Amino acid sequence: MERPINRVVDLTHPNDQQVVNMDLEAARRKLLGEDPRGLFGVQGSFALVARDGELVRLARSLDRPLRFFLAKEEQGPLLVVAERMDEIRDFLDEEGYGDQFHPTYTRMVPAHYVTSLRLIGCPDPNPIHTRFLELAEEPLSADLDVIGRRYVGAILNEIETWLLAVPKDEPIGVLFSGGVDSGAVLLCLYHHLLRAGESPTRLKAFTLAVDGEGSDAEQAREFLCRAELEMLGEVVEVDSSRLDPFAAVEVIEYYKPLDVECATVNLALLGEIRRRYPEWRLIVDGDGGDENLKDYPIEENAELTIRSVVNNPLLYQEGWGVDCVKHSLTYSGGQSRGCVRTYAPLRKLGFSGFSPYTGPSVVALAAAIPFAELSRGSIEELYALKGEIMRRGIRAHTDLELPVFPKRRFQQGATSPAAFQERFSAAQEAYRNHLLATLTRGQG
Predict the structure, then answer these.
(1) Which of 131, 144, 148, 235 has its CA 20 to 30 A from that of 78?
(2) Backbone dihedral angles phi then psi of residue 421, each to the nearest 5 degrees
(3) Pairing of the two strands 128-131 and 113-118
(4) How far is it, in rounded angstroms, from Cα 253 to Cα 340?
(5) Is the dihedral of CA 209, 215, 216, 222 positive or negative?
């Protein structure tokens, strides 16, 4: 016999929510509305929980995680919602239900969907996922000038909205490699501050150099020199001994090597920023730029072909999709899963993060770019698109020139090849075992 949910425990942190165009209660009302697409109008970063009798709905933005777990207690089912697995585990321990917990039983709310649960009982029915992200019915023109202007325009709108919502007296840090994504973010912020009559010295471009090496530091210096913004740069040197991938596994609660590597260098960079600037709060990054413009090395993933990449508009943001066999219930897919590599380190070290590339309007516009037509079956032409789109768009809106360098991953550009090999020699299975051991401590 099915029994309705007895308790819903929301462990998310209200003060960490960053909805910028309405209060949280208004956002929750939209979550419970008849049309899930109403949530598309909620701007900012959020992880929402709302209940109406036997109906519980959950939703989140692309830049942060949201998990739920169903436990059993005598009075009926208990639904626990949190950002992290360990928060769910610790709550269940306190309530005396710790023996019911296992990390693989937690479920990730997929980004861009309203997740609805009703009359949860035994057996537990699957939740219903309804997309709230509105995608264009027709693709954009294949004109790169038009695409660049539209796409960078959407990015600038996201930045302007965010700047209006944060205190004007707080400094803004940019995690800066000199690559296209972080470079465009820095130029857009600089442009907005000048246009608003504010001093651009409010900005600081932080570049990581492990052991004083890595190619990002030189790239960042060249970018800033060509943009005549050298005064904004700060190289952050850390010793390679501070790169601890197993600590990163615990922070992001995930084990795939690329995410672990990225989180490891993020923790090193953010940790040193926190040491140097104890009061610093606002951090902007370029997370999501690669996903939006499909700038990942296809040849490194045996599951992908250029056809699968260009014909799946949200492949890199959402993975294969909530209705597909390969979709992970525990971790979600694509950036919907990978957001933890940036969000979790930021939160652990007390920063408030922001990336304009994860805004729904920016993601939706990127999904309308006709990648198949523009790349014409060529991987090389696909890879060249991001730099060209961003360069044209930045010039159209700001009259600034965006330096474009060859792509490399953050974790590789911030380290020397020798340090990278030394610190990231563990296999995926070692990371996975460490995560399970950490999350199941005291069980069995």
Answers:
(1) 131
(2) -65, -40
(3) antiparallel
(4) 8
(5) positive
Q: Look at residues 311, 346, 335 and name the one whose alpha carbon lies nearest to residue 110.
A: 335
pTM of the model: 0.95
Copy the structure tokens of residue 208: 């990581």
Confidence of residue 260 (pLDDT cuts 50, 70, 90): very high
* 144/390 Cα distance (integer angstroms): 9
Domains of the chain: 7-131 (no CATH), 144-438 (3.40.50.620)
> In terms of DSSP bridges, do strands 67-73 and 107-108 run parallel, antiparallel, or are they unpaired?
antiparallel
Q: Which two tokens stand for residue 390?
A: 């961003």
Q: What pLDDT shows up at residue 266? A: 98
3-state secondary structure of 12: coil
Q: Which amino acid is at 127?
A: P
Distance in Å from the first CA to the final CA of the chain: 30
Task: Note the pLDDT tens digit of each residue in 134-155.
Answer: 998 899 999 999 999 999 999 9
Amino acid at 343: Y
User: Distance (Å, rounded) from C-alpha 149 to C-alpha 257?
Assistant: 35
Does residue 394 contact residue 187 with C-beta atoms inside 8 Å?
A: yes
The yes-or-no verdict on residue 389 having pLDDT over 70 is yes
Q: In this structure, are strands 67-73 and 76-82 parallel, antiparallel, or unpaired?
A: antiparallel
Calculate the CA 276 to chain-centre distance: 25
Q: How many CB atoms sit inside 10 A of residue 38's CB?
A: 16
Top-confidence residue, 406 or 109:
109
E strand intervals along 172-327? 172-175, 203-210, 233-238, 282-284
